[in-house]
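Q: Please design a sequence for this.
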């Protein structure tokens, strides 16, 4: 159920020009799915951004994965007009 709710946010990653050469890190999707409102980009990139960034660091197995996930998260939020 939660995975279905995050479809919109994940779709933003697929549409991002910056991510055409790389796949969305799985740990980013896992981090987004921990949120109570994974479909709400305004909250994910706003009031919930600190929690999301903490979850990214927790969910990713390596520093490289965490860095890639954080970068993808920040770029997606920027494409939605939000600064993280």
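A: Design:
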């Amino acid at each position: 159920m939660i995975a279905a709710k995050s479809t919109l946010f994940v779709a933003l990653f697929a549409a991002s020009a910056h991510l055409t050469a790389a796949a969305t890190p799985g740990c980013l999707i896992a981090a987004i799915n921990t949120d109570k409102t994974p479909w709400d980009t305004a909250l994910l990139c706003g009031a919930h951004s600190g929690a999301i960034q903490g979850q990214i660091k927790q969910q990713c197995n390596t520093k490289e994965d965490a860095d890639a996930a954080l970068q993808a998260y920040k770029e997606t939020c920027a494409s939605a007009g939000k600064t993280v």
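Q: Thanks. Anything notable?
A: The two ends are 27 Å apart (CA to CA). Confidence is low (pLDDT under 50) at residues 15-21.
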